[in-house]
Amino acid sequence: MPEPHVFVIFGGTGDLARRKLLPAMYRNLVASGMSEQSVVLGLSSADIDDADYRVMAREALVEAGLDGAAPWCDDRVYFQQLTRDEPDLQRLRAKLAAIEQKHVLPGNRIFYLALPPGAFPKVISNLSAAGLNAGPGWTRLVIEKPFGRDLESAKRLNDLVHQQFNEDQVYRIDHYLGKETVRNLLAFRFANLLFETSWNRDRIDAVEITVAETLGIGTRAAYYDNAGVVRDMVQNHLAQLLALVAMEAPHSFDADAIRDEKVQLLKSIRSIDLEELTLGQYERGEVESVTVPGYREEDAVPVDSTTPTYISFRIDIDNWRWQGVPFYVRTGKRLPEKNSHVAVRFRPPPTCLFHGELDECETHQNVIKLILQPNEGFELHFDVKSPGESLRLVGEQLRFMYADRFDSIPDAYQTLILDIMNGDQTLFVRADEVEESWRLFDPVVTAAASGHPLLTYPAGTWGPEGRHTPIEWASGPIRGEVTRSPR
Ligand code: BG6
């Protein structure tokens, strides 16, 4: 049960607040009988009042399939207009005081920056100048991604944050860490000795991480064309997946113990070999039977944009567990299907006892495929002798699907918001973690900006042609998986 607090959303009328934050808060608070614990205060430059904002909040909740929210909105949701020329945040302080008095709250506050990244420094400085970085109760600062544009700017932002806040007040959001299947990566590995004892260079041949999206950039051209796939997906979501798949066991499930191990892992990664880096940009094509425009044809994207929307690269980890095991990573927009997974391919048997036609070895490499979304679950691919006289092997699968076992999976934001309310930092990115990740991907950002070949791919295909081939499995290729990019 979170302690009573005010949840302040900078960017309270924005897309994130409407689509994710308000529904997640409602589910956490009202559906779980905890509505007394929190009051929501939306902030933005919109010229509206409490009543208008309540209507907006209600509509957002209805859109999220949450009816009957009027009493909560009327009782626990407020709004304050704030403009850029109010560095002392006077109207915010007055509103907070009024809300805290009315609801008899002890002065615990969460400040959630659901803002474009360029606005973070100013708001952080203003909060502190207005004396809102501490007390009367606890104060927590939540910062959305992307955290910085590169290593230098991430360091500057960390410095600024640390001048005004202690690290234990700071929650850097990466919503992938709130996904149930991503959280399960540690449970899968460290609660199941069977898997963890094989999770190393002695048994594993290669690991592949794919985050494939069918979506394009929607209405976010202004942000995306500036960010590109490395800043948007790789430095944060993909780096986190990689860290969870490859890190050592933490000494406990404590937030810092886990984050220490993630940092260690990121530090062990060798500089990315730019020879193995493929960058792509989608052209007009067909996704799920609908013709979609190419990236350069999207609204507000410059016709000569060189922003990559697809990337694949190889990671090598220089530590005892992973030396010599390649990790192939890729993500892209406008691929044929939404499909995020980690495929772990095991080594082949040392000698071949089973020969098929033409005396070729018939065995296939075992694969564990952890399906992050959609159709969450995992598959274990193995060989079985097909019944009958001859020694023919066929590839089969053991499969676990969340949907077969659990009614529903909470949304990532729901999990993360509850953790912020409860002061649990485990699923949030620590300052050193974000910097280590930038150290790794800074050269990739630089390469993308300075003439690394940008290939094209038709929307609805698996990225630039010829760069990757799917893993062949007896029952057909595992769709959309990569083996390696040819040098
Ligand atoms: C966001 C990116 O962080 O993650 C988007 O900014 C991307 O570009 C999204 O589409 C993907 O999230 P999910 O949860 O749909 O995999």
What topology does this entry show?
Layout lengths: L4 E6 L4 H15 L8 E7 L5 H14 L6 H7 E5 L8 H13 L6 E5 L6 H10 L9 E5 L7 H14 L5 E3 L7 H11 L2 H4 L7 E9 L8 H26 L8 H14 L9 E6 L1 E3 L2 E3 L17 E6 L11 E6 L6 E8 L20 E7 L3 E9 L7 E9 H4 L6 H11 L8 H19 L4 E5 L29
Parallel strand pairs: 1-2, 1-4, 2-3, 4-5, 5-6, 7-12, 8-17
Antiparallel strand pairs: 7-13, 8-11, 9-10, 11-12, 13-14, 14-15, 15-16
Bound molecules: 6-O-phosphono-beta-D-glucopyranose.
Provide structural commentary.
The protein has 487 residues and is of the alpha/beta class. The chain has 13 helices and 17 strands. It has helices spanning 15-29, 50-63, 70-76, 90-102, 120-129, 151-164, 180-190, 193-196, 221-246, 255-268, 402-405, 412-422, 431-449, and strands at residues 5-10, 38-44, 77-81, 109-113, 139-143, 170-172, 204-212, 278-283, 285-287, 290-292, 310-315, 327-332, 339-346, 367-373, 377-385, 393-401, 454-458. Strands 16-15-14-13-7-12-11-8-17 form a nine-stranded mixed beta sheet. β4, α5 (120-129) and β5 (139-143) form a beta-alpha-beta unit. α6 (151-164) packs antiparallel against α13 (431-449) and α10 (255-268) runs parallel beside α13 (431-449). The longest helix has 26 residues, at 221-246. It is globular and about 80 Å long. The termini are far apart. The model is unreliable at 470-487 (pLDDT under 50). Residues 213, 215, 232 line the site of 6-O-phosphono-beta-D-glucopyranose.
